[in-house]
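For the sake of transparency, this paper describes our internal protein records without simplification. Because each token names a local backbone shape, the row as a whole describes the fold. One such record is reproduced below, unchanged from the form in which we store it:
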Amino acid sequence: MALAILVGLLAVPGWSLGRTLAASSTDPLGIRVVEWARDHQLGGAVSFIERSWYAHHQPPKGGTPRGGIPLAPRLTTGSTSRRASPRGPSVPARPTNITPLVARPLPGEGVWQPSGPVVAGHPALWITFVRPDPVHTSLLAGVARFDMSHLTATLHAGTDVPGGGPWVNGARVARGDYPYAVAAFNSAFRLDNSRGGYYAEGRTVKPLVTGRASLVTYADGHVDVGVWGRDDTMSSAITAVRQNLELIVDRGALVPGLANANSGLWGGTVGNRIYVWRSGVGVDVHGNVIYVAGPGLNVDTLAELLRRAGSVRAMELDINTWWISFTTFTRDGHGGLRAANLLGSMVRPPDRYLTDGTRDFIEIDVRH
């Protein structure tokens, strides 16, 4: 990764950097140097290098994805549940397909494919793939929709973000969750860049900020994405709150001002108009969780994909190649899990959430 040039540009030797490089971690050398730099008041230099590199290494224009639209991971018959949805409205068994953003869609583009376990007779997870815009037509974004009437979400703490363990829900999927695990995906920015707070397991790691975009999990299993203080407020029913920047979709529409490349509302580390790997999460009118990730996205196109997938409220999660990962799980028949990436272009190995990681993440399970 080009950001590894930070090693030469900064040339700041020291025992703390040495300890960081020598520490046991699944993160590559360049990533560890960058994270160390951000922890030592060098975030401005890192951001400058990132913006400069990405601005001169934008994704290709034109073309088509090699191999066309991929197949989603196959259906499995994992643990089942018939617990009623706490939200009340019935949820259609098959979501409405996404209208592609290109004039001539590929076969299967935007068409939801059933995936994950069959719960109460219906797939609990649906996946589809779309090209992000009419220009970068060789790229694919992955979109996942979780039927949360039979699923639950858990915020896991990473060893570094937020750190400060021990945590019940630690840096990997627990063995006890293997029979129920459906998927896991990346969380949001580092806390010092999120402009928001972090609450989990009755502990406030960083104070929650009114008005910030928030992913909120509840004890009854349901999940919300909204504005803290407007859509969700603290109560004993809340199990975790992960905040990050401002909403990018609200009331079913793109939030005004996303096109402002100089706005820090949606992340100042990489310009909002720069096309990079990005991810986001939203909820639809029924409270189902929608996740989007892919290369060649700016804030506008990420928000538009989340909106087209049905999100009424949505927020950006993390950005940049290394931090974005989404894994689906199937049972291997021997008590273990088989893991598969949502997109073949994701660089993290599929078992990323089965080993300790430095960043926090979201696990989705069948309710039990």
Remarks:
- The chain is about 15% helix and 30% strand.
- Confidence is low (pLDDT under 50) at residues 77-90.
